[in-house]
Amino acid sequence: MNELLPAFDFHHVVVAPWTDYLPATGAWMLMGFFVTATCGLVGNYLMLRRMALMGDAVSHSVLPGLVIAFLITGTRGTWAMFLGALLAGVATTVIVETIHRKTRVKQDASIGVTFTTLFAIGVVLVSVYSSQVDLDAECVLYGEIGNIAALDEGGIPAPLVRMGSVLIGVVLLITIFYKQLLVSSFDPGLARSLGVNTTATHYGTMIVLSIVAVSAFEAVGAILVVAMLILPGATSGLLTTRLARMHGLSVVHAALSTVLGVHLALALGSQIAPAIVVAGAGLFGLAWVFSPTQGLWLRWRKPAKPGTAPVEAS
Prior knowledge:
The protein is mostly helical. It has one domain (10-293): ABC transporter involved in vitamin B12 uptake, BtuC (Orthogonal Bundle). The protein has 13 helices and no strands. It is globular and about 60 Å long. 40% of the residues are buried.
C-alpha cells in the first residue's frame, strides 16, 4: 500500500499551503477558482439547453486554432493564440448549427462529428509541422495551473488577470441578460412570443462559451475544461431548481473543489487541474447521495410505491 500512495505529511498537505507555500498555492487556487466558477456559470445554461457536449466541441477545436495561428503569425504571443483559438471556437459553433439545421443529422451527432474532426485536424497539423510548432501534448490535454507564477513575483500574473476579467465579464453579461437567458433556456417558444431574439441569444451564449473555453485552455487544457463546464451545474442542479440559486451553488462548488483539489494534488504529488476535477466529482457524488429532493438516501429511506411516478420539482 505504501508503494501505491505517498506518505501523508500533514504539515506539507494541510498547513504549508496556507503558510509557507501561500504565494504559489494562492495563485493556483485563484486560477482554479476563476476557471471553475466561470465555466460553471456558463455551463448552467448548457445544462438547461441540454448542450453539455457543445463545451466538449469548443474545447477540442482550440487545438487547430492554436496551430494555425502560430503558423500564420510565427509567434506564441498571447493575443495571437487567443484570437486563433477563439475563431476556431466560433467556427465550431457555426459548423455544428449549420449541420444540425440544414440536414437531418441530430444535434448531438453534429457536435460529435465536428469536434472529433477538428481535433483530428489539429493533431495532424501538429504532426506535420512538429518542427515548427512547440506545443506540449500534456499541456494541450490537461493544462497546468502549476506553471502560473507566484503572487509575490512581480505583481499579479497575467493569466490571473485575464481569467479574472473573463469571470467578471460573464457575471456582468448574466446580470444584464438574465431574463432573456432564463426564458430562452427553459422555453424557446415562449421566449420568441415575448419578443426575445432566441437566435442571437443562442449564438451570443456560444461566443461566450468559446471565450471561456479558450481562456481556460492554458490552465486546464482541452479535456478537463469539459468537466468544469458540467460538474458545477450538475451538482447545483441536484440541490435546487431555481436558476439564481444554481449560479450561487456553482460558485460555491468552484471554491470548494479548487481548495480541496489543490490539497489533494499536494498529497498525491499529481497535477493540479485533474485533482480539482476529482474533488469536484466527489462533491457531485455527495450531492447525488444526500440531495434533499433527489438524493439516493431518499430512495433508500422511502422506496417508491409501485405504479407511482417520481414527483418533479416545479
